[in-house]
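Take one record.
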Amino acid sequence: MAMNPDFDQIPEDLWVFAYGSLMWRPGFAFVERLPARVVGAHRALCVYSFIHRGTPERPGLVLGLDRGGTCRGIAYRVSARERAATLAYLRAREQVTKVYRESLRSIWLMGEPERRVEALCYMVDRSHLQYAGRLSLAEQLHLVRQGHGHAGPNRDYVVSTVKELEALGFRDAHLHLLAERLKGVHATPLGG
């Protein structure tokens, strides 16, 4: 099931974990924004974009939270009274083709001390036809360069995500390499 109606029934603040465009363009009201990490999942350009950053004929490539590893991103705390509106907004934005599964996962809020909370995460559905899996750097470059959808050029999505990661003091080696190639800067390849 892609959407979890049980999330709507909890009368508490909602934590949302952001690892891609939600980091730099959340689009919903929040009362707190903190660096965070999730263990057991990683950020990957593993989703063919048919709407936001591409079309079915010329797909782009966007991020998914895939199983394994660790991912650093942003945690947003949404007030209980904004919970329903935020879930409706996120579902309209993230679940257009239902390529993600809504999941409550433990995340760590980075600070002194670190603390653990349960957060809404959008995990990629590996059985969905838009799941691209692990692609080579050349394949990623091709898809990102050709991709353009309702939200604009796919290149802008990658570059904006990298810029936000840098602002947070994070580095995602594969995503940074892709962004450098998109800007025309040549770096040493990372095996792919």
Remarks:
- Residues 5-181 form a domain with the Hypothetical upf0131 protein ytfp fold (CATH 3.10.490.10).
- The first strand starts at residue 14 and ends at 18.
- The chain has five helices and seven strands.
